[in-house]
Design goal:
It is built from eleven helices and ten strands. With 301 residues, it is of the alpha/beta class.
Length: 301
């Protein structure tokens, strides 16, 4: 066990016995801020270093923006929690081969951007800002928490022709439980954490978190083809989130289910990226396939 995690677990669970509010406040602070910034990985450097870089201002933070291409036919890349734009490095060359311009960013508190943290609302705002700069997007490609932000942004003014969602969170109400489970925090801490989240400190102006951040609500509001790629063994965002999206969007959502890739390797698996490339090149196709291990199709979903 990570010694830092063990210390957090012991400290907060013990504090919750005598001072639940204090323990909840400390847990909320950890919940809002990434533990550490993600670095560019060795296999990402070549693509990352070829990007044209710039910044945009978001609140008090300067946000790093990356683009690969001449600006024509832009595709927006939306990363997840404790991640960064370079995680899409294996997809970028495929986008360029299709004549698409890849546009990504590091959210505040992530990667090379300033600031301390970013919520789904910040990702949505950044997506709309980048639309002002690059115009309507041919597609949005998102991973993990970025998927929820993509659905929200598409409901609130982001314009795109297609959506690709890797390992996506269909709704956010499960996050406090997942956070507390990962750290081994008790029910008292979780209850206090949820109370603070619902109190408006994290999502100002949002009255009902469960409904507002539900990617499956009112599916008719997002009338575009969708491809969802999700691993059945994902230990971060359960596969049930993918099934929930498929049930909501029906045949216009293609579900690519994988096995053995987990939450992150799905972004670099060539067979999955082949299907994503085909989807972006030719549009959505009905149905879905299951990919086993290094990309063997084993059945329909």
């Amino acid at each position: 066990m990570d010694p830092a995690v063990a210390l957090i677990r012991t400290t907060l669970n013990t504090a919750s016995l005598a001072a639940p509010g204090l323990a909840g406040r400390a847990a909320f602070g950890l919940y809002r801020h990434p533990f550490r910034r993600s670095r560019v990985r060795p296999g990402e450097h070549e693509v990352h270093d070829r990007a044209v870089t710039g910044t945009i201002r978001h609140g008090d933070a300067r946000v790093a923006v990356y683009s690969w291409g001449d600006g024509a036919r832009p595709v927006l890349l939306m990363h997840g929690w404790r991640s960064r734009a370079s995680r899409f490095a294996h997809l970028v060359p495929r986008l360029r081969a299709l004549g698409l311009t890849a546009v990504g960013y590091d959210a505040p508190g992530h990667g090379d951007s300033g600031g301390r943290t970013a919520t789904v609302l910040d990702h949505r705002a950044l997506a709309l800002r980048l639309q002002e700069r690059y115009g309507d997007f041919e597609a949005v490609v998102a991973h993990s928490l970025g998927v929820n932000a993509a659905f929200l942004a598409l409901r609130e003014g982001l314009r795109a022709e297609r959506l690709v969602a890797f390992s996506g969170a269909s709704e956010l109400s499960w996050l406090p439980t997942a956070f507390c489970d990962r750290l081994g925090l008790n029910a008292t801490v979780e209850r206090e954490l949820r109370r603070r989240e619902a109190g408006g400190a994290m999502f100002p102006g949002v009255a009902d978190i469960r409904t507002h951040f539900d990617a499956a609500r009112e599916p008719g509001e997002i009338a575009l083809p969708i491809l969802v790629a999700h691993d059945e063994d994902d230990d971060v965002v359960p596969f049930s989130h993918a099934r929930r999206l498929r049930a909501a969007y029906g045949e216009r959502l293609e579900l690519v289910a994988t096995r053995g890739l987990g939450h992150r390797r799905i972004l670099v698996e060539p067979t999955v990226l082949d299907q994503v490339t085909g989807f972006l090149a030719a549009g959505a196709h009905p149905g879905g396939r299951t990919v086993d291990g290094p990309g063997e199709a084993v059945g329909a979903v």
